[in-house]
Every structure is written in C-alpha cells, then in structure tokens.
C-alpha cells in the first residue's frame, strides 16, 4: 500500500481515534482494533466514544480503554483517525477533536463519504471498515493478536449480516479465515451478538409483527410504533430499528416501512427494499436519503397522516 | 486423500446418491453438488430424494435432476453414496436402495454416525457434509463450476447458522472464500434462504413469542404448540421447529423447550441449551437423545402433563 497512514506515526505521536454516533459492531470493532494496534506503536493513543458504550458490545476486548472526550481537557493531537464515518456531523460532540488535530485521517467504506480528511482512505468495495483496518495493519506488518482479531471479526460479521449481504466477497471470507487463525472465541462472539437478547425486546418484536399491516397486494409492509409502545415495552432504539428487517424478509414484500413516532409532531421513517425498488428515491421525496435498499426520512405529522402521505407517494411513483 | 471413493468410479458405473428425510440445506446441497460432479465422471448417476423437495431450496441449480425413487423400477447400482445421514433408518423409503447396491459409501460429519457403509468417510470436525464433499472433489482434481459451488456454499452457510455456530472454523471460511471465487450469486442464495418467508410463518412466530412462558427465575423458556394452532396458522413443520431458537437466544435463558402436540396423545419435545447445560441428558430421561445443545424426545400425555413432568425433572436434575 502506498502511503500507509500508520507510517506517519512515531513513538511520541499523540493520536485520537474516533467513530460515529449510534455505534455499531463495525464502528466499535474498527475503533478498538486500530486503537489496540496503535498502542503498540506509540505512547499517546486515545480511543474516544461519542455515546454510551452499548451493553451488547462490552464483550469486545479492550472496551475499557475507550474513553469519553472531555471538552475541557484542552488536549491537542498530532493525528486524528476517523473510522467508518461518512461525514464530520456524524461525530457528535467529538467533532471538536478534529479542530484540535494537525492531520485528519479518514478511513471508511461508505460510498457517501465526503472525503473530509487530510488523508482519505476510502474503499467502497470493502465489506466493512474493519476489513480496511485489517488491510492497513497487515500491510504495515503489525502483528495481530487475539484481541485485535476479535474486534475485527465482530465488525466484519455484523456489517455483512453474518456474510449474507451483498458486500460479502470471497476476500471477506478470506480475512475471516485469517482472523479465526488467531484463535478468537467464536462461541463468545456469537453468544453476545445473537444469544443474549433482552426478553422485553423479544416481546416487543412479537407485538409489532402481530400488528404489522400488509398493503399494496402484499408488496408493502408497514410497522407503526407510537411513542407509548416504546414506554410500554421499555425497549432501546436499536431494538426498534431492527424489526424492519423482519418485515422486509417476508415473501412478496418489496418495501418495508417503519414509522416511529417522535417528539414534536414528527415521525421518523425507515425504508427497506429487497430487490429492484430504490427506496433512497422514496426517502428523497420527503427530504431524507440513504442507500438503494435502506433509507430514511423524518416527516411531519401523526403516524396516520404520514402513512397516508407515503401510500399516496408509492401509488404515484410506482403505479401500485 | 488415501482412497478417495471417487476413484472407484468409471464411465460405466451405475451410481445412486441419497440423503436423509426432512432434508435441509446441507443434505440437499451435498446431494446435488456431488451428483452434478459425478455426472461429469460417469453416465449412470441417479440423485434420489425421499421427501418432497422443499420449496425454499428450489433455487438450487440442478434441483430438477433430483428424482423420486420408484420401488418397482428394479434398478441395481454399483455404488450408493449416502450423504449427511447418521444411520440407514433416516433414509426413509429409499433405504431399500442400499440392498440393491454393491458398495455403500457413507459420507457424513455427524458424531452419531453408525458407520453403516462399506466405506465410511466420516469427518466430525467438518462444519458440514458439503465441506467434506468439497474436500473430496478438490482432492480428486474435479473442476468445480458455479452450480456445484452454489450448492456447496448453501449447505455450509445453513449448517453453520451463517458461520455463527461452533462448527465454524478458519477452514470453513477458507472454503467459503474459494466457493465464492466461482462467482456464485450470493444475493440470490440469501434471498431464498432468508428473505422469502411466508407471511403466515411470521405471524405464527409472533404469536408463539407472545405466548411463550418463562420460568425457573428466567432460566427456562417454554413454547407450547397445540395441534389446532398449526391448523390456524397453516404453517410447515420447519416453521415450527425454527421458533425454539428465538426462545434460546433470550438473555438469561439456559434451556428452551418446544412442546408440539401430535396425534395419538403424544407431545414431541425439542430442547435447546446455550451454555453449560447438556440437554441430551434431559432428553435421555424421556427416551430421547441428541446433542448437548440440541436434543429431543417424544413423551406421552397432554401438553400440560408433559410440561409438568419436564419441570419436575429439571428441578430434580438441576436443583432449580
């Protein structure tokens, strides 16, 4: 690799590592993996979080080394590595660290990345940011260990939906094979990711699947979640967002829609498509955006009003 | 590989290929993959099924070449390859083919395999029978193609729960990488395996998760399915068996139990364990058996009576 950004570092470098708000397996996995690796290279490495560290991912080795950035600490950095983050706004309150860093290194696999870094290492063909970090470390000749491999495997597995989504390539499996060679505990990873679901989130899933509505001759599934339902089941935002995939995965469904009532007379809308429909266009009609198969928008109105607007738009755009 | 059984064949060999009843991704994938490969070696290759071919797997290339065995056909075979099948009884009505074959080649990865073949190629370390078939074909130098690779990948993916279960190894990922190198259509495979669920099976899942009972201080989940529920939702047996995994995957649950009422005053019971509990012992107390983490038994009585028996046994054995 020409210009491997790790070659910029020396033992005295002060480095910040950041990722996006609402962290997921790939952002946390790449954040910690790169952090643990860099700590082998230089003394002043700080791994920052923007949000509470999700309970689900506290099995990741080294998670205790992830710290909250305190705005009053007046710390400056030689380098700031930003991982898995399409633009600066998604950094939340740690965006301020960018201004305190001499050089920003932006490492990501999202096609929407705005190339906001001084150095931009963008690989939209990579399954995940963890796959890019793996390439970086291997290219630099930095020895991996079981902790780093566990974090990288977790990010790759979660961002590919366990090697199911279209971003999975032969190379993704090859990297997974090499990471397993470091004797990671797959049983432990699987347990924490998939076998440790809170009972209330499972009851919540059952409730919404029971009340899901199917329309447009079986082509559209709509799940509506009034605010009081979240309180009733006491579920996390991540539990809510996941249910839309169950609607998408039904035979014949081409568009799945999640309507989440939020404060201020707005509804947060999630769209998922399975085959040929481009739901980023649909979201775009309401000021939102995203990918072809997964997009979102925030729309004013009650759940009923928003549902009606969406149904009219679908009829108009698709002739259904 | 010493004694690769493929070296027994010549162009005039008559070969039958069989697998177990209640077919799954690994049995069908290995059956068809080996069949398609052998058809490159000899003229008389017959791929037999014992059951209706499941709708879900009709995307497998070459599935039309799988035929029902007709007892009146009086056909004899030089070789019978039996795949993914622990013992002869699991062959259903095609068990008769064994008697009409000069040599039985038994290829499997189940630890419970009774070694009923003349040649037994048993590898309990392999993730799946498809992984063993891959090794056989590669060792023999037989060129794979996209159809064979699609079948093998499907079997490996389904038998490992998408690379999640403990049978997944570094080598499993390596094989998956090599199979993807044949340009298989992962999107199509994923769509048919995971994104094409009948609506009634999703509504059924919602219903049973809603009515699931939790006992023993949150350590045991019980799902009871009376016969009339199956009729009400019009679901397949495979839809029923899958729901137990949702119960197992709940935080704190150590044993998940599925009670399925069946004709004749019996209840078919499925057990799943997550960590240290060995549910094959529990099943054994009721004349059943299986693996440490997945077992089953058939118990006389109504659902209520069977539940009571099980609860008493759990208290006795585990002190809960």
UniProtKB/TrEMBL annotation, chains A, B:
Domain DHHA1, residue spans: 232-314
InterPro entries the UniProt entry points to: DDH_dom, DHH_sf, DHHA1_dom, Oligoribo/pAp-PDE_c-di-AMP_PDE
Pfam families, per database record: DHH (PF01368), DHHA1 (PF02272)
Stretches assigned to the DDH domain: 14-156
Protein name (database record): DHH family phosphoesterase
Organism in which the protein naturally occurs: Clostridium formicaceticum
């Amino acid at each position: 690799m020409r210009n491997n950004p790790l070659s910029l570092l020396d033992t005295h470098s002060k480095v910040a590592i950041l990722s996006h708000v609402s962290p997921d397996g790939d952002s946390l996995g790449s954040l910690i993996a790169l952090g643990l690796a860099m700590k082998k290279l230089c003394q002043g490495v700080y791994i920052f979080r923007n949000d509470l560290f999700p309970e689900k991912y506290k099995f990741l080795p080294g998670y205790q080394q992830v710290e909250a950035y305190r705005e009053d600490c007046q710390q400056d950095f030689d380098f700031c590595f930003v991982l898995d983050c399409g633009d600066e706004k998604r950094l939340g309150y740690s965006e301020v660290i960018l201004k305190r860093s001499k050089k920003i290194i932006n490492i990501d696999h999202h096609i929407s990345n705005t190339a906001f870094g001084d150095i931009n290492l963008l690989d939209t063909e990579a399954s995940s940011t963890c796959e890019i970090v793996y390439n970086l470390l291997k290219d630099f000749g930095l020895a991996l260990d079981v902790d780093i491999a566990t974090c990288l495997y977790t990010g790759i597995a979660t961002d590919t939906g366990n090697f199911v989504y279209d971003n999975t390539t032969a190379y993704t499996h090859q990297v997974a094979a090499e990471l397993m060679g470091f004797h990671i505990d797959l049983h432990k990873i699987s347990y924490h990711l998939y076998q440790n679901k809170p009972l209330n989130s499972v009851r919540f899933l059952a409730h919404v699947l029971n009340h899901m509505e199917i329309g447009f001759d079986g082509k559209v599934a709509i799940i509506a979640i009034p605010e009081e339902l979240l309180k009733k089941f006491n579920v996390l935002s991540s539990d809510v967002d996941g249910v839309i995939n169950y609607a998408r995965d039904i035979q014949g469904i081409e568009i799945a829609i999640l309507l989440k009532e939020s404060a201020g007379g707005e509804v947060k809308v999630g769209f998922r498509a399975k085959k040929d429909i481009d739901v980023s266009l649909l979201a775009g009609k309401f000021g939102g955006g995203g990918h072809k198969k997964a997009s979102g928008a925030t729309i004013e109105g009650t759940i009923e009003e928003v549902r009606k607007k969406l149904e009219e738009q679908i009829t108009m755009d698709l002739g259904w």
